[in-house]
Amino acid sequence: MESTDTILQVQGLSVSFGALRAVDSVDMAVRRSGVTSLIGPNGAGKSTLFNLISGAIRPSAGKVLFNGVNVTGWSPHKLLRAGMARSFQITNLFFDMSVRENLRLASQILEPAGKAWWPLSRSHRAAERVEEQLERFSLQGRADALAGELSHGEQRRLEIAVALASGPQLLMLDEPTQGMSHGDTQEAAQLIKTLSSEVGILLVEHDVNLVMDVSDHIVVLSQGKKLAEGRPADVRANPQVQAAYFGGAHAAA
Ligand SMILES: Nc1ncnc2c1ncn2[C@@H]1O[C@H](COP(=O)(O)OP(=O)(O)OP(=O)(O)O)[C@@H](O)[C@H]1O
């Protein structure tokens, strides 16, 4: 992979929980555009790798390079300011605030400290961004509703909008379609694909069909190690992947 195409590089990343090597010397890269997905059976280490990349936990060995800069051990907030946003499965929404207020706070994250709580009228740029996001994520009609009152599908859309509101270069999505209906999942897949032309996406998702549809590149983890990587068709055809994943006892993971 050309280094100029690469937004994120992971080198020899490892972490152990007691005797368990949950992530074991993983190398991988994410391009500036397109969708890179992480798949693997239950317990393969996907969430742990996500947590290592996004600064939620510290690695015991290895490096994370973002835009060529060594960001290993940076806090999630510092990474967000540098352009790495992660959606946290709804937990990053304020349920007792309106949809518009959720987006406003998220879009002001990059503004000087202390201004985030200014009234909307004081920050025109942020206000414009908020309206753009409302339209893009089909939430205009719900702008004044409390986030806690939205349907599950709407909350998932808002969550992605919130993660995007700070204008990141890398968007990390953690099971964005979990709990969605089939129709909402199809819409979310389309949205992810569209977004990936303007922002690099790293996706962890249990819905293998969705992963196969939207991904440009797939990394397969098994027992903390990288088992295989490549284009969707190549990964699906890989006998090791089939044995460990598609054909295995955890095929639905
Ligand atoms: N904080 C922790 N303390 C101890 N063990 C942990 C911790 N977090 C994860 N593990 C273990 O590390 C291994 C990898 O877990 P992880 O959640 O990263 O896998 P995963 O691929 O995301 O699984 P799933 O598909 O079930 O979400 C598992 O064996 C898990 O039990």
UniProtKB/TrEMBL annotation:
Residues 8-248 form the ABC transporter domain. GO terms for cellular component: plasma membrane. InterPro entries: AAA+_ATPase, ABC_AA/LPS_Transport, ABC_transporter-like_ATP-bd, ABC_transporter-like_CS, BCA_ABC_TP_C, P-loop_NTPase. PROSITE patterns: ABC_TRANSPORTER_1, ABC_TRANSPORTER_2. The keyword Disulfide bond does not apply. CDD domains: ABC_Mj1267_LivG_branched. PANTHER family: ABC TRANSPORTER ATP-BINDING PROTEIN, CONSERVED COMPONENT OF ABC TRANSPORTER FOR NATURAL AMINO ACIDS-RELATED. This is Amino acid/amide ABC transporter ATP-binding protein 1 (HAAT family).
